[in-house]
Each structure stands twice: as structure tokens, then as C-alpha cells.
From TrEMBL:
Residues 125-377 form the Glycosyl hydrolase family 13 catalytic domain. The lineage of its organism: Eukaryota, Metazoa, Chordata, Craniata, Vertebrata. This is Solute carrier family 3 member 1. The gene is SLC3A1. Keywords: Glycoprotein, Membrane, Transmembrane, Transmembrane helix. Gene3D superfamilies: Glycosidases (3.20.20.80), Oligo-1,6-glucosidase, Domain 2 (3.90.400.10). The chain crosses the membrane at residues 88-110. The keyword ATP-binding does not apply.
Length: 380
């Protein structure tokens, strides 16, 4: 009896395992029927025949349904109405990828270089006076720079940047220029400079020089003519009436020099105050005067003809000042105004980055672009 019961359980499991689930749960609560002991032999024979003699199921006439077996899925996926849209979408995707690749390559080929020559490699900045001294007079010079070009090239440097070498006083590291078209004698001659430019280019290097358009030295010819109100030079600098009694000057406003104290200085020749953002020996040019802008452009052209590749403009944000000359706002509003003497004690809203400054710089760039026969050669 125990053997018959075990056999019936095995046959029942086989019968259940042969049922096909088409993705739907018909009824999980249907109780399994206990096989009739009287027909166990027939059930065993039927089950054995079903398992051993199973054949490929016939799916003809069957509609797609969720959870269908792969045999049914393959039957439908091969039909034209399913295959053709799938192939169309596939080839559209392939074509889109190819178009994107072609567009990317075209953009890379046709677009200008991401980096210009002054961005492609390191620059070597040289303060000439502390560089090599070729004539043993205690000052570095242009010939000394030329002698060291092999060393500079070995450093994989792409651009040489030479700071101010113009004729000037020793004030403020030679940024008070007396003549923008002359090489200071302690550095050599204009011929030395031309030889240096040629040697730099022979090494495959570029040359950038410092340029200081904001101000000049008070010994510059322009200033000497301006303080005597000579012709067009009268307004080359920023002049304004001020009170000067017993050696004491009452300036037009509270504007301060970068180095501290008032940025106005009284000139006894013109009997007015002139404005200087830096030292009193460095009066600011009046860039609201078109003649001044043209003078600067002529200086740029002069050095470009000498073979200079670009300029490092210094103190550009100081080119323009507000016309109204109103006092600048104190950082500490409770501070006594007469004790405000340091540059950091004011908000410089009226003496830096004024409207029109970028237009002036753009005009300088346009001058260089018009002068150049090689687009993008000269950089500001």
C-alpha cells in the first residue's frame, strides 16, 4: 500500500508538471484532485506516454500574449509587419550615429584652433635689468637676452616676454616711460633690439613686450607740452582746478593713488592739479581724448613693424575715470574722511573699469589685426 501511494504521488506531480502556463494564473485556489486508486494504472500509462511522446506544440492561430514562450515570440518576430519596422529603426539609429560622427569631424576640422600661439606653451618672462649682463656694466641688457636664447629654447619655452625696456626713469620699475619709441641706453640700442627679435624668430619663438598705456613719466614730451597748454597736447592728461595755498593742496575729490594719499598733484606751471593713479611722477593720460588713443595706436604700429608678436598691456582697468569727479564711497563709513589715505579704504567705482574701457582695448586689437597680414598673429 505504501508503494502504491508513493507511485500515485509521483504520477500526480508528473501530471502537474506537464501543464502549460501561458502567462496567466488561472486559479491558484483550485484544489488538486486526488487520483482515483482504481485507475492508477491508467493514469500511470497516460502520464508516461505524455512525457515520453511529447512533440513540438502547434502555435498556429495563437495571438501574442504576455509571458509567451520564445517559440511563440520567434514565430511573431519573423513576420513582416514586425520585422520591417524593427529593421528600419535599427538602420535609422546606425545612420544617425554616422551623421553625428561626420558632423563632429567636420566641426573639428573647420573650426579655428582652440588655443592660439600665446596659449600653446609656457612663456619666459624676463626683467632685462636682472638678466644677463653682456658688457659687465652691472645691468642686464638686450644682448644678454640674445646670448641666453639657446638656454631658453632648451626649456621648451614658446614665447619670450620682455618687461619694460623703454627710455624711462627708475621710478616704479621703469613703468614711468619717457619715450615709448626708444630703448633705454642701459639696455642697449634699437639695433640691439632688432637683432634680438630676429634671433628670437630664428629659434621659432614668439616675442611679447610690456606696454603701459595708462600713464607716462612727467618728463615725457607730451606732459611737458600739456602743462604749458601747447596745442592739442593741452588735454592729453587729466587736469582740474584745485586749491593750493601755503604748500597745501585741496584736491577736487577724495580719489586716492594706488600707493596711498591723494591721486591729485598740483603743478605750478599750469596752476592746476593733474590726476595720477600711481606715483605723482606718472600722470594719467586722458583716454577720452581721441588724439591720445591715436597716439597709442601709432606706438603699437611702430613696434609691430619691428617684428613684435604681441603686447602685455599693464594697468588696463585704470584707463578711464568717471567724468563727474564725485567722491568715492568709503569702505568704513564711520571713518573720519580726512584719515582715509590708503587705497583699500575706498570702493573704486569711479576710477576703475569704466564704461568705454573695453571699446578702447577693442580698438587697439583692431589696429593690430588690420596691421597684420597673418590673422591672429598679434595678441593683446
Amino acid at each position: 500500500m505504501a508503494e502504491d501511494k508513493s507511485k500515485r504521488d509521483s504520477i500526480g506531480m508528473n501530471m502537474k508538471g506537464c501543464q502549460t502556463n501561458n502567462g496567466f494564473v488561472h486559479n491558484e485556489d483550485i484544489l488538486e484532485q486526488t487520483p482515483d486508486t482504481g485507475s492508477s494504472a491508467d493514469n500511470l500509462q497516460h502520464s508516461t506516454t505524455s512525457i515520453l511522446g511529447s512533440q513540438e506544440p502547434d502555435f498556429k492561430g495563437v495571438q501574442p500574449y504576455a509571458g509567451m514562450p520564445k517559440e511563440v515570440l520567434f514565430q511573431f518576430s519573423g513576420q513582416a509587419r514586425y520585422r520591417i519596422p524593427r529593421e528600419i529603426l535599427f538602420w535609422l539609429a546606425v545612420a544617425s550615429v554616422l551623421v553625428l560622427i561626420a558632423a563632429t569631424v567636420a566641426i573639428i576640422v573647420l573650426s579655428p584652433k582652440c588655443l592660439d600661439w600665446w596659449q600653446e606653451g609656457p612663456m619666459y618672462q624676463i626683467y632685462p635689468r636682472s638678466f644677463k649682463d653682456s658688457n659687465k656694466d652691472g645691468n642686464g641688457d638686450l644682448k644678454g637676452i640674445q646670448d641666453k636664447l639657446d638656454y631658453i629654447t632648451a626649456l621648451n619655452v614658446k614665447t619670450v616676454w620682455i618687461t619694460s625696456f623703454y627710455k624711462s626713469s627708475l621710478k616704479d620699475f621703469r613703468y614711468g616711460v619717457e619715450d615709448f619709441r626708444q630703448v633705454d641706453s642701459i639696455f642697449g640700442t634699437m639695433e640691439d633690439f632688432e637683432n634680438l627679435v630676429a634671433a628670437i624668430h630664428d629659434k621659432g619663438l614668439k616675442l611679447i613686450i610690456d606696454f603701459i598705456p595708462n600713464h607716462t613719466s612727467d618728463k615725457h614730451t607730451w606732459f611737458q607740452l600739456s602743462r604749458t597748454r601747447t596745442g592739442k597736447y593741452t588735454d592729453y592728461y587729466i587736469w582740474h582746478d584745485c586749491t593750493h595755498e601755503n604748500g597745501t593742496t585741496v584736491p577736487p575729490n577724495n580719489w586716492l593713488s594706488v600707493y596711498g594719499n591723494s591721486s591729485w598733484h598740483f603743478d605750478e606751471v599750469r596752476n592746476q592739479c593733474y590726476f595720477h593713479q600711481f606715483m605723482k611722477e606718472q600722470p594719467d593720460l586722458n583716454f577720452r581724448n581721441p588724439d591720445v588713443q591715436e597716439e597709442i595706436k601709432e606706438i603699437l604700429r611702430f613696434w609691430l613693424t619691428k617684428g613684435v608678436d604681441g603686447f602685455s598691456f599693464d594697468a588696463v582697468k585704470f584707463l578711464l575715470e568717471a567724468k563727474h569727479l564725485r567722491d568715492e564711497i568709503q569702505v568704513n563709513k564711520t571713518q573720519i574722511p580726512d584719515t582715509v589715505t590708503q587705497y583699500s579704504e575706498l570702493y573704486h567705482d569711479f576710477t576703475t573699469t569704466q564704461v568705454g574701457m573695453h571699446d578702447i582695448v577693442r580698438s587697439f586689437r583692431q589696429t593690430m589685426d588690420q596691421y597684420s597680414t597673418e590673422p591672429g598673429r598679434y595678441r593683446l
